[in-house]
Prior knowledge:
The chain is mainly alpha-helical. Helix content is 38%, strand content 7%. The protein has a two-stranded parallel ribbon. Strand 1 (95-98), helix 3 and strand 2 form a beta-alpha-beta unit. Pfam families: Helicase_C, WHD_SNRNP200.
Amino acid sequence: MEQTHEECRLVGLSATLPNYHDVGTFLRVKPSNLFFFDNSFRPVPLEQQYIGITEKKALKRYQAMNDVVYDKVMEHAGKSQVANVDLRDLIPYGFAIHHAGMTRVDRTLVEDLFADRHLQVLVSTATLAWGVNLPAHTVIIKGTQIYSPEIGRWTELGALDVMQLPIESQMISKLADTLNAEVVLGTINNVSDAMNWLGYTYLYIRMVKSPTLYGITQEQAVHALLFCT
């Protein structure tokens, strides 16, 4: 909008994200003009339930998670849909998977079928929640561990962390294509233009706050900060 000089008074986002300040910075919104409406404004309240698994052994812990997930799915499935006990183990009808190892055609097909409600249950990796908008009645987060490269092991996320995972930029995987498109459009003519353009992206906003997530070491981040100042 800044480059096209089009006037816009209000920008509304329906996505639920905790780091809305980053989006406000990305859109060049003054803090006094940034408003956030929490879950208390929802016409239909969200219910959150946490189930603890105390098993220490990894294999048994994942089996316990599978049992809990199965029980929760059966609760929402309804007795009329699985009246036959023998069919409970044949529940793959109406199920699908979604992960980065699939072809793009297969992923798109799964997304479309789920959006059109032809699929009742979708099992996916965490990246689906960041890249695709697929509203669901019930979302089950299986496992709350993430790998921390700083300490070299898996760490457990707290309840507050799970509910406030920041929305990261996915632009870096397509950065070369995006830059080429801007060059063709005439927006970028030299390195200075490219740096100026990058400063207006959400990728830049998140890289400044969490450089290590985007392949930048702490040493490089400190050096860049000292060089810029």
